[in-house]
Amino acid sequence: MNQQAHGGTTTLRPATSEGSGWLTFGGAMLVLVGLFNVILGLVGLTKSSYYVVGPEGLLVFDLTAWSWIHLTVGVLTAATGVALFFGATWARVIGALLAGFNALAQLVFLSASPLWSTIIIALDILVIWAVVTHGAQTRPER
What we know:
7% strand; 65% helix; two-stranded antiparallel sheet; mainly alpha
């Protein structure tokens, strides 16, 4: 905490650095990616004809299973993004892991939704970069 004096009173405010802005960005992107995944999962579960899967199909699971995976990962990712806003240290690690797993899941889902999956993969890469490279910069200076 930094202390700042104002006319005899002392105000405490959180220590900030350049990296805290990137963590805020990472948290916002985690929430956004999480919401995108929730939408993707709900659409897959409620309108199964929305996604067109080619003759080669999807890797490993069917469309319903991937919809549940996207829905679950989306809820966990959005919750982790909110925790990152509140400064939870564990949220940086879990956020990077969830973003990495989500990028792989979107890669598998690419044949069903190419543009949407590509956008989410790009956002996942930004999240990983923001929380991994700038996470240590928010520690208070001693």
